[in-house]
């Protein structure tokens, strides 16, 4: 049995109020993952903008201690 099937089986046993709470928690997890994904995308997009500041002689000296 897959994890999804086990979850469905367990959710079907829950009273409606607890099923709603599980649903809200699932939505929370999804929204947190979406936030992380958006932050990673923004970081990736900004890398080229900051490259000239990060990739220079002074920065190289700082990188080496």
Write a structural description.
This protein is mostly helical and 65 residues long. It has one domain (3-63). Helices cover 88% and strands 0% of the residues. The protein contains three helices and no strands. The longest helix has 39 residues, at 16-54. The protein is rod-shaped, with a radius of gyration of 22 Å. The model has no long low-confidence stretch (mean pLDDT 86).
Task: Briefly summarize what is shown.
The chain is mainly alpha-helical. It contains three helices and no strands. The mean pLDDT is 86.
| Major β-sheet annotation | none
Q: How much is the radius of gyration in Å?
A: 22 Å
Instruction: Report the order of strands and helices.
Output: HHH
The counted number of beta strands is 0
Q: Compute the number of structural domains.
A: 1
The chain-level structural class is: mainly alpha
Separation of the first and last Cα atoms? 54 Å
Q: Percent of residues in beta strands?
A: under 5%
- Residues in helices, as a percent range: over 70%
User: Ranges with pLDDT <50 over ≥5 residues?
Assistant: none
The total count of helices amounts to 3
Question: Globular, elongated, flat, extended or rod-shaped: what is the shape?
Answer: rod-shaped
The overall average pLDDT, rounded, is 86
